[in-house]
Amino acid sequence: MEYLSHSPEETEALGAALGRQLAPGAVIAYRGDLGAGKTAFTRGLARGLGYGQMVTSPTYTIVNEYLGGRLPLFHFDMYRLRSSEDLFDIGWEDYLERGGVCAVEWSERVWDALESPVIITLEKLDPDTRRITVEGGGSLADLSL
Description:
alpha/beta; 7-stranded mixed beta sheet; Rossmann fold
């Protein structure tokens, strides 16, 4: 499914629509350059999972945990990791076993560790417009903005 977003708010709304549909154990694999909207999408994802707290990029912490919504949300930034071995060193399998949603920025760095992810590709078409493609996820319904 392909969508056009014309603002961070529309990107967040799309993330929220996905968050309302996700089941325990879902893995979201983001693809997109810096500034493409990955963190904005994750803010919406968190809202769709029932979180009202602020969502920030885990660039320096590697993972941010959000607990207390419908499902736990584990937001990873793999930019600083070299390989999936590093991912397993920080406890990837433990996060998967906790039955939450794992949202992974820079997923291409750890691709071999991700099983059946929902792939979210964000492309910056101009300063305000993003093309957002959602692949995988089996029975996900259309995400309307």
